[in-house]
Fold these 2 entries.
Entry 1:
Amino acid sequence: MTTTAPVPTLYEDTAPYWRAAVEGRFALPRCRACRRFHHHPRAWCPYCWCTDLEWAEPSGRGIVLTYTTVHQPPSPAFTAPYVLAVIELAEGPRMMANVVDCAPDTVRVGTPVQVTFEPRGDVAIPQFRPREETPS
Amino acid sequence: MTLSGKAAIAGIGATEFSKDSGRSELRLAAECVSAAVRDAGLTPSDVDGLVTFTMDGNAEIAVARELGIPELSFFSRIHYGGGAAAATVQQAAMAVATGMADVVVAYRAFNERSGMRFGQVSSAAAHQVNTSGVDNSFHYPMGLATPAATVALVAQRYLHTYGATSEDFGRVAVVDRKHAATNPDAWFHGKPITLAEHQASRWVAEPLHLLDCCQESDGGVALVVTSAERARDLPNPPALITAAAQGSGPGQYIMTSYYRDDLAALPEMGVVGGQLWRQSGLARSDIDVAVLYDHFTPYVLMQLEELGFCGRGEAKDFVRDGALELDGALPLNPHGGQLGEAYIHGMNGIAEAVRQLRGTAVNQVGGAANVLVTAGTGVPTSGLILTAA
Ligand SMILES: [Zn+2]
């Protein structure tokens, strides 16, 4: 039984993502041809098949597209209740994260969030916390 | 060239359904396969094909040795967990229709409750050196690991998009358990539930209550597939395979397809449904019984929509109107489904479809001529339409 929280396995295409997180940077691959970010990191752009990618830093802002409050954790490493959410980044890609630094029952579909980093073992996990809406 | 009507299910067999079988998975497999072969009026030497799930622990050759099946000319396995169920019959039918084999047995046997529990998580799964390992690295570290949580995220978006409620999910559980209550083979025989009990059951992962989640079971089910022609000479009325399909959708993952446009849908089941209607030439109104994979209640509502039994977002109204009752417009899971009878990865539902067509089901729908069966959802999946000969 796992008692420490799982860490991601670093693969060739995904390692720079996790290494950036350790440095407190939120980095994603961006296609030099179509200029789109994608997540999770791949060897080529899933939109145009271009292999000319660069690591760039999106805003780290997004919204909660959907969420669940987990009451029955998969292992003792996780303390329930906690919030899992699909975040849609301002730049388009979606990703899985915990919504942290808030009461679980305050999260809603559409809650604005901002990336934050949770150190874990030798890496760090990009997570999200609620963001105050700033008028634009 | 069409597969429709070329092959039939001629035999069904099962073990008892329990929480602790007390015997090996191989013995469960041997028991259900031999029961199915006997039910078909055949002997082990008639069998020349075996097909199962990649997830099954019992190799085709081990089952063949156990039963004294001398030669196999066709063996195959289908991936993606419970999504394989109907596809095992599809593969068997294709093998029979193309002359690769004469009699193919599809089987699934496991100690899913007393052995390795699917509702739990294996930490090793996040570290596989393959594409599943890559996928899992973006889910497991956040604590997304149980099937319930993966479904809850889709279910929440569905509620948000269509204004459905937890009670709409609950109505599926209540119907399943009502049907199981009068099925002596069901784990929940004699144990119906009310909507209030569903609502009062504890949260597993919001918006899923405990009673939205299917049980874990020990047991095995096997299905004998042969040509329609040969099936007509065997003791039981054949269940003709009128349509059989697999489906995977855009941006497909195993339970975590959150990155495609519509989060409140199961497009892989839409892919299956489209093929089933085309192959069979049947209309929705021709279906007398629906055996829909019900590991989690929200996915039953979404399947009704993907298969076109109601419009997008309208399943809640369809279900509220009592359509799923035995005397309703589309009787659902008369055996009690996986929520009520047992969780044998969808194979027990195919056996129920055969009983309905034979007219021997315990909760028989009068004059059932066409039954639609689906496999696991949230994963690449499969489906069948079976027809009384
Ligand atoms: Zn591109």
Entry 2:
Amino acid sequence: MTNDRSVAASVGVPVPRKEGRDKVTGHAQYVDDIALPNMLYGATVRSRVPRGRTKKITFGAGIAWDEFVVVSAKDIPGKNIVALITDDQPCLADGVVNHPEEPILLLAHPDRHRLPMAVEAVLIEYEPLPAVFTMEESESHSQVIWGADNIFKAYLVEKGDIDGIWESADYIVEGEYRTGAQEQLYIENNGMVASFDAQQGITVWGSLQCPYYVHKALMTLCNLPADKVRVVQMETGGAFGGKEEYPSMIAAHAALLAIKSGRPVKIIYDRMEDMAATTKRHPSRTRHRTAVSKDGKILGGEIDFTIDGGAYSTLSSVVLSRGTIHAGGPYYWPNVRIRGKAVATSAPPHGAFRGFGAPQSLFALERHMDRIAKAVGLSSVEIRRRNFLKPGQTTTTEQTLHEPIDLDKLLDRALELSDYRAKRQRFAKENSIGATRKGMGIAAFLHGAGFTGSGERYLSSVVGVEGCADGSVRILVSSTEFGQGTKTVLCQIAAEALGLPYEQVGIAQADTSEVPNSGPTVASRTVMVVGKLVQSAALGIKQTLVGAGLLGKSYSPEEFRVACRNQVAAHGPFRSWAHYEAPNDVFWDDEKYRGEAYAAFAWAVYVAEVTIDLTTYSVSVDDFMALQEVGKVLHPVLARGQIAGGIAQGIGYTLYEKVIWQNGRMQNGQMTNYIMPTSSDLPPIRVFFEEIGNVHGAFGAKGIGELPMDGPAPAIVNAIEDALKMGFDSIPLLPEDIFEALTVDSEPPAGGGVR
Amino acid sequence: MSRPAGNHGPCELSLIVNGEPKTLRVYPMERLLDTLRYQLGLTGAKEGCGEGECGSCSVLVNGELVNSCLIPVLQARDADIVTIEGLAAGTRLNDLQEAFLQLGGAQCGICTPGMILAASHLLRKKPNPTMEDIREGLSGNLCRCTGYIQIFEAVAEAARRRATT
């Protein structure tokens, strides 16, 4: 693939981040750093009730309203929807509100200090309508708030004959598990700048993951053709899924104000607005009923997975899909029935967040495996070992496992790296005395890379690589950098494919007027799917130069540079395009939810070591060992950083981050009362990789971004059970929850049972 | 310059920013963060929370690490202020910047300016910090991307390089 006049490899080497220098010097340009001449600042007037009709809007006294630009639903030139999957969410509420903080009016003023008082001064009278705040209320249909039955989407996965299995079971183990909402808490709040010009149309610059999602939403909203809408991603200060769909809403708002005022408009949310109004991880409830043989083999099971989608459908159907498919984890289920359901409540829509449904259903499963182990009288290690998927077996969707993954070996190495056995023995002795209890917990799991099922086929991504006048090459993708290292890794792939040094490859800013739609930057798909396309587009550049007789089959970087320059000088800049083509042997049935759900899975075994202080009931994670198989590691520093960062978010999800709801509104929308881990709260996070490669990804890579979010919660809660000999089945698990369970006489926790 | 609500009229104020003396007309109660970003165009200091929790607006005022979103600019009168823009010597990166770049201390980059200034403050006070000193010294600066591990490693590496050169 590379030429024989060897250039140092790029793949597998910790090259410096493409945009790293700008980031460490403070020169990187984020959306709030933009200042355009004549720019106005925008703000949003939001619903203060969970559900109701808006009766009357009054612009209160004491505000110079003639200085403000005011936009309502009546000012929308196109359709009043935020186009995504189902057209149910308005850009501005028009007569009816369906959740607290729903946008109703927009204001803009040249002085940003004038906005907060003006927002307060808009008085809206509501006729309240009944609202729904829990999944159970939604399921009861006592109030129908969405569609005919409050259900955004339901899936049924069936394999084998589950109804015939219960008679032959030695044990039937049941459990119910819950997870709470989680705020993405990127340190950069959401924001957009928009500018409108009758000739050029609308341009927005923003903090976002998916330029073409915003592009589609603005075309629909503004009734403009594709070439009159331009979306530019600025440096983005963290996203984690939280800037997947909501940026379309903010871009729409900034665009409407820009169109009405004829001036550029900047909208930057403050922290409280961002936390209260934008998306969070879906709360979930999972019920397991599992038939197990006396030697601990799973004979079959029913899994009922329900997520709370909030008031509009947004991405809930897709989150549900991933959660449903991951519900069986890395185990072999000869018979299974999984019902997945996303229901409506009167809260702001829940949305994308790293892991995307999988952390929820995998928390349930990995807690349930420990419950099964107890019922059968096996260890946490042995119950997993006896049920691990093996190559040649099928997953719950009847995808045959072709990868040569050896989960037994992965587990063995994880136990060794965490010193699991020796530590457990020691803790068992030490736990009888003193005011602390220590324990070890395991989670084994998998995460599918890329879009689910036929998703990649529908996305049909396109990638370009350009030969430039200076003899370098430049990658053209809409895939965005927001910390994970997209720009760096894609440049490594192109450099490796062309046998060029990393420095000779650049990447364009994600600007829809310049880059093709390489799909959204989500679903752990960028390195595997987009990377593979970058590799093939890069090779197209070489073929052009070789075909033109400018380059031999073997060349030095300098010869490539000269050839590329000559080609551009003669014919102008030249580009090579690669289009996604689904492998022919991949089968997926959208109706029956059966087949090859993912082109590849990443696999992991995590082990947590915890101490519970019996005086304060606080839990500290003392050590976190994370072992994973992720295909080829293209950049060891970035990959390790991704895993460690995901684990930190997972520890927060488990032990610290609790969204307090009241009437559908988040009450603790500040960093002072919604607590994420600080540098003092986290254990050593020790990251290890196995690399067995992957035929579908560039140079053998799989996706890794979401994987680390799946394991911490069950590993930690399993460790807490190991320490306290008392199980907990819902997260977040705060000291007060442990205090209550240990001190208050109560039933055994959460609906679990064993026959 | 725009007038924050409930503020006194503008006044003249001198201060030193990244070694350069400046005289500005400011509202005395406006936040130092806004003066830096809006008047001086120094956008390296970021607003993450606006209430002193996240540390992404950290700057050094007379050598002390402060959250610039919490202090009125009046309090910085005649002060010597260092922002992230003042750390590199021309195009040459400061040793902490270099270590963050090499060892994965920066991911999305939004906390990075504040984090590097916090680290710089730490190393001035404790040139040979233990891991515990680093964890403690950076605990006022939140990072959602890294899990902090590679930030600790970058700070330790910068300290090591300083000790050996």
